[in-house]
Amino acid sequence: MKKAQKAGPRASCSPKESRIVTEEQDKVFTQDQNEEHSRLMRSATYAAVGVALTLIAIKLFAYLATNSVAMLSTLVDSLLDLLASGINLFAVRQALVPADRDHRFGHGKAEALAGLFQAAIIMGSAVFLLFQAGERLLNPKPIQAETVGIIIMVISILLTLGLVWYQRHVIRKTRSVAISADSLHYVGDLLINSSVILALVLEMVFLWHYADGLFAILIAGILLYSAIAIIRTSFADLMDEELGEEERENIKTIVLSQPGVLGLHDLRTRRSGQQVFMQMHIDMDGSISLHDAHLIADTVEVRLMAEYPEAEAIVHQDPVTVTADAETGDNPATPRNEP
């Protein structure tokens, strides 16, 4: 029978070595997440530009075949989509550029600027839609049911639906303001094209000429409400607004759950595009070595970055006096947990 081989010199390691290995693994995992987010955001912008170009091509063909003014208006709308998505593509690429000598905190605010631009386009489209709806309600006219036009609208809906689905997937992963605004723009197109077909069906079946105008007013209201939400989010990033209370509480929970951290105070946060910036003071036993205090702070930063892959955390260590209880040996230091 073979004797069991002795474990090599690295078979066991100290708690400090294990913690360092774990921290390095977390850093690699965080870097992989950052690269995945960047890839998703780029692919979403490329997809939007590709869909816009495809819609322009088929709508141009339909307009030349039918000479329809309605088809010309949808063609112009797709041209605006291409302009908005092109600017969004540039903004996202700029936002993902790493920090440099002149931009130490990165270029994340380009996303918020793109969000404002997209919101302006959406609000302009909504206002134009309201005027068109009012004119249609005052002077109802039958919708021209051209076969080519209906086919083009169905194709447009299917392509836009696929794009919106993918954009929502990217938004859930990255929480990108720019992609969210671009998605809202295409949701508006999706609602408009769907309402045209639904209004056409109502007119053909019930001879109801007012459906088109009423649907347009409803869609315009939805677009205006959503555009205002995008503007608020973009301004929050540009004005360095604090993260929401739920996220701040989550940060506090992560920090205070780390062994060796006795308290937390002076927490400051902000978001810039994909990046989250955090600054905080943590209380530690003043009798531990500087090396141990640094390891604790490093571990806090790594755990925060694991939760927020694009985060940059600055942790200041404050020493506190800890007096052991004479009977139990416990340290009755009261942790500070201030805003």
What would a concise description of this structure say?
The model is unreliable at 1-23 and 325-335 (pLDDT under 50).
Fold and architecture overview:
This protein is mainly alpha-helical and 339 residues long. Helices cover 66% and strands 9% of the residues. It is built from eight helices and three strands. The chain has helices at 15-66, 69-95, 109-138, 147-174, 177-206, 211-238, 245-256, 290-307, and strands at residues 263-272, 275-285, 311-320. Strands 1-2-3 form a three-stranded mixed β-sheet. It is elongated, with a radius of gyration of 28 Å. The protein starts with 14 loop residues before the first helix and ends in a 19-residue tail after the last strand. Mean pLDDT is 77; it is low at 1-23 and 325-335.
Helix and strand layout, with pairings?
Layout: H1 15-66, H2 69-95, H3 109-138, H4 147-174, H5 177-206, H6 211-238, H7 245-256, E1 263-272, E2 275-285, H8 290-307, E3 311-320
Parallel strand pairs: 2-3
Antiparallel strand pairs: 1-2
Helix pairs in contact: 1-2, 1-4, 1-8, 2-3, 2-5, 3-5, 3-6, 4-5, 5-6
Number of H- or I-type helical stretches: 8
The helix content, as a percent range, equals 55-70%
Query: Strand order across the biggest sheet?
Result: 1-2-3
Order of helices and strands: HHHHHHHEEHE
Task: Kindly report the CATH topology of the largest domain.
Answer: Alpha-lytic protease prodomain-like
Low-confidence spans: pLDDT under 50, at least 5 residues?
1-23, 325-335
Radius of gyration: 28 Å
